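Work Package 4 report. The design task specified in the project plan requires that, given a folded chain encoded as structure tokens, an amino acid be chosen for each position. We show below one input record used in the internal validation round.
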């Protein structure tokens, strides 16, 4: 009975994993990507790059000049100075004298019934000059001077409501950073792949485009004002459909963020990110849940069988199970390398074997803690 149960668990796990890896993730890793923007300067529509910043003096000092190197003529930059008490206000005044297309608005306090970042973003979108809004964060850098053009093309040219982009993290030589690279790509595989299959369910605010008119039409963050986080994924989760959304897959359309360099900072950040998933639609929770449950069943069943056959010295069966585990691990490695190349233009250096196992601990422990948390804060 025990052996049958282990085989059953292992079989269910590998069957569902095969569907995710080959059919769903394979769409991102190996599927054909559209050619992208063909716009000329005469057809460019105005774009507002919007950033909500709280005590981001150092990052803004580096970011603002980079933004004005973009190869796109009709854009401006709106910085929402959200209750900063560093030198952000003075920096923005100095930068606005240098860059005429830089604008700012200051948040002095946040009303009690809303959360800080949603209030800051809403204020910035309301006063934005252009209808096409491109969101990023103060600690992000565009990967190329084509970022604005390529990220906004589906909204400007194809009539899409949402354009979802990839945002990676700078590489560093540490286990934490290799894990961050892996987890970021794992998350991207989930939302890009389902998006390509016309079932979008999330995005990251570090690289997201939509129209101001749509945002105002649906009354901004109606229904999620009180939730800390979710200004990106929950907004997309509420309104994105297969028809009104586009996944932008092009290394020139990405942004690169500064990663956390301590586990404490990282866990606080991820706790906030994972907490938002609690409020996803039921069908979207299942998209993540089926992968994570089958992933756990695969490893629990597989390792259980290895121990069982190892103790019983049934080496032929041991090698069969071990071979299946190796084949899946090679498939994961191949998918991650191909997806990384498509999304960021780099093959990446994450250790898929170790991190794939670590994902069990991450999702089931930190995910559970985050799901139940009530003390989530932005900044």
């Amino acid at each position: 009975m025990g052996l049958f149960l282990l085989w059953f668990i292992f079989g269910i796990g590998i069957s569902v994993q095969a569907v995710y890896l080959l059919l769903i993730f394979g769409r991102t890793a190996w599927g054909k990507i559209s050619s992208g923007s063909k716009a000329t300067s005469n057809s460019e529509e105005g774009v507002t790059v919007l950033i909500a910043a709280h005590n981001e003096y150092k990052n803004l000092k580096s970011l603002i000049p980079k933004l004005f190197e973009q190869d796109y003529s009709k854009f401006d930059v709106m910085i929402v100075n959200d209750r900063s008490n560093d030198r952000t206000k003075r920096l923005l005044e100095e930068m606005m004298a240098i860059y005429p297309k830089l604008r700012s608005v200051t948040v002095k306090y946040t009303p009690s019934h809303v959360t800080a970042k949603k209030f800051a973003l809403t204020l910035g979108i309301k006063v934005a000059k252009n209808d096409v809004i491109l969101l990023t964060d103060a600690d992000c850098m565009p990967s190329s001077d084509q970022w604005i053009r390529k990220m906004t093309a589906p909204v400007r040219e194809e009539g899409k409501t949402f354009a979802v982009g990839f945002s990676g993290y700078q590489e560093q030589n540490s286990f934490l950073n290799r894990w961050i690279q892996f987890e970021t790509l794992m998350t991207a595989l989930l939302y890009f792949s389902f998006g390509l299959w016309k079932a979008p369910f999330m995005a990251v605010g570090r690289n997201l485009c939509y129209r101001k008119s749509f945002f105002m039409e649906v009354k901004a963050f109606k229904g999620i004002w009180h939730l800390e986080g979710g200004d990106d994924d929950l907004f997309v989760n509420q309104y994105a459909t297969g028809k009104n959304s586009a996944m932008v897959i092009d290394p020139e359309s990405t942004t690169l963020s500064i990663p956390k360099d301590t586990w404490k900072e990282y866990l606080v950040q991820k706790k906030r990110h994972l907490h938002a998933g609690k409020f996803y639609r039921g069908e979207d929770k299942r998209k993540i849940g089926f992968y994570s449950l089958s992933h756990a069943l695969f490893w629990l069943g597989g390792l259980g069988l290895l121990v069982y056959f190892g103790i019983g010295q049934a080496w032929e069966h041991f090698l069969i199970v071990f071979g299946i585990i190796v084949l899946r691990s090679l498939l994961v490695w191949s998918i991650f390398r191909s997806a990384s190349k498509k999304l960021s233009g780099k093959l990446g250096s994450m250790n898929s074997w170790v991190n794939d196992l670590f994902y069990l601990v991450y999702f089931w422990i930190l995910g559970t803690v985050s799901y139940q948390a009530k003390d989530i804060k932005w900044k």
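DSSP finds twelve helices and ten strands in the chain. Validation will be extended to a larger panel in the next phase.
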